[in-house]
Write a structure and sequence with these properties.
Keywords: Chromatin regulator, Metal-binding, Zinc, Zinc-finger. One of its GO terms (molecular function) is zinc ion binding. InterPro entries: ATXR5/ATXR6, SET_dom, SET_dom_sf, Zinc_finger_PHD-type_CS, Znf_FYVE_PHD, Znf_PHD, Znf_PHD-finger. This is Histone-lysine N-methyltransferase. Strands 4-9-11-10 form a 4-stranded mixed sheet, with no helix packed on it. The protein has a 4-stranded mixed sheet with strand order 5-14-15-8, covered by helices on one side. It has a two-stranded antiparallel sheet with strand order 1-2. It has 2 domains: 111 residues, Zinc/RING finger domain, C3HC4 (zinc finger) (Herpes Virus-1, 2-Layer Sandwich); 249 residues, Beta-clip-like, CATH 2.170.270. It is α/β, with parallel strands linked by helices and 390 residues long. Helices cover 24% and strands 16% of the residues. A hairpin with a 3-residue loop joins strand 6 and strand 7. The structure holds S-adenosylmethionine.
Length: 390
């Protein structure tokens, strides 16, 4: 069974009023204390409560920079908010307010799009500098260090293996996983790696091609694939060998023929730098593994569901915000439109590998050079708001 994109059941990152009430509104004294401890709560959250016209706007007001507005003023102030991009005041549940200048934007009118109203403070494009792309140096040794490339053990003889029906066999009938074919030109390989290093450094992310279990997140033992509701897909011997070879090739710098570019509307995106065959393992989705319950206030932009369990407290997600690989830059389709669905060329499939869950991005058809990579962030659940995707 494939994973949904972020495995996030909360739907939106705006705090629910109940949580908000619990956390912030029990009494004015607590709110004061909270304000000291937690420097601010976002205007979006304040506005959300204000819009609901609830009695607890007393504490909303309390949060509103300590001003003595009454709750009606707060409601009025925000009721007229319009999106700076499309000019509409509709759909205000999807509108985010700048914590500096109060300008409002629908999250889907922003470029790149936000998938949920941030629970934390947020600044509009005019109040923040666009992130400068930090081009990674072209120096080979730097790239090798960045990816901690291991000694190359030789190009696998893919042709021979194919002829003999070995692990790299690509067959539509058997649907065996296939290993990527790296670019032969070493300069091209370096360019591909450099593009990924540029995207990672610009996004302040360390490269990691493995799932990581840092202190304070979920422990490794919690990744128990046997807990998956309905059972997780097992890897057969051939697929397992293909997976291992694919990982080894990444470790040795024989990376999949992918290039990361920057799109003004979507941010970093991944494109095929040479043709990729159906069933190829394009990348494993990596990052810090954590309990879903610990991530309810994350922006949810790139969180991937890893383990769906009977007991909600045991559900796991992959969080590629500190450590990650190329998978976190792959775009999602708009799965509400036929156009969007046509773009899909990958699928995220979760496998049981030695008792642990792993999420792999697999090609679901032949992909041409230059094609942008897409998969459905909502393959099985539908909590990722892809309706606003381009
Ligand atoms: C997992 S990240 C993908 C990498 C991201 N583009 C970046 O620069 O980090 C998901 C985010 O990418 C953007 N995105 C992904 N697919 C998109 C699409 N089809 N249309 C518009 N934005 C998209 C959205 O901003 C989304 O929140």
């Amino acid at each position: 069974m494939a994973a949904n994109r972020r495995g996030n059941k909360r739907g939106r990152s705006v705090l629910s009023l109940d949580v908000w009430e619990d956390q912030y509104c029990k009494c004015a004294e607590q709110a004061q204390k909270r304000r000291r401890e937690q420097s601010r709560v976002s205007k979006s959250t304040r506005r959300y409560a204000a819009r609901e016209g609830r009695d607890d706007t007393l504490t909303v007001r309390d949060y509103n920079a300590g001003a003595c507005e009454n709750s009606e003023d707060v409601v009025d102030k925000y009721a007229e908010q319009r999106c700076e991009s499309c000019g509409s005041g509709d759909d205000d549940a999807e509108m985010v307010l700048c914590d500096r200048c109060d300008a409002g934007f629908h999250i889907y009118c922003l470029r790149p799009i936000l998938v949920s109203v941030p629970a934390e403070e947020w600044f509009c494009p005019s109040c923040t500098k666009p992130p400068a792309i930090q081009e990674f140096p072209k120096i080979q040794t730097k790239i090798i260090d960045f990816f901690r490339i291991e000694k190359f053990s030789g190009v696998p003889d893919t042709k021979k293996r194919r002829r003999h029906g070995g692990i790299l066999t690509f067959s539509k009938r058997s649907r065996k996983l296939a290993v990527h074919i790296p670019s032969k030109d070493p300069r091209r390989l370096l360019e591909q790696m450099r593009s990924l290093a540029t995207a990672l450094t610009t996004s302040n992310i360390e490269y990691s091609d493995e799932l990581t279990y840092p202190l304070g997140c979920a422990p490794r033992e919690s990744n128990d694939a046997s807990l998956e509701v309905g059972g997780m897909q097992e890897m057969n011997k051939d697929d397992r060998a293909a997976y291992e070879l694919s990982k080894q090739m990444w470790r040795e710098g024989q990376v999949a023929p992918l290039i990361v570019t920057h799109d003004p509307g979507q941010g970093f995106v991944v494109e095929a730098d040479s043709p990729i065959k159906d069933m190829t393992i394009v990348a494993e989705y990596t990052g810090d593994v954590d309990f879903m319950r610990n991530r309810v206030n994350d922006d949810g932009n790139s969180i991937m569901g890893l383990l769906f369990t009977e007991e909600p407290s045991k559900e796991l997600v992959i969080c590629p915000d500190k450590r990650a690989n190329i998978a976190r830059f792959v775009s999602g389709i708009n799965n509400h439109t036929r156009e969007g669905k046509k773009k899909q060329n990958l699928r995220c499939i979760r496998y049981n590998v030695d008792g642990e869950a792993r999420a792999l991005l697999i090609a679901i058809r032949d992909i041409a050079k230059g094609e942008r990579l897409y998969y459905d962030y909502n393959a099985y659940l539908s909590d990722y708001p892809t309706h606003c995707f381009l």
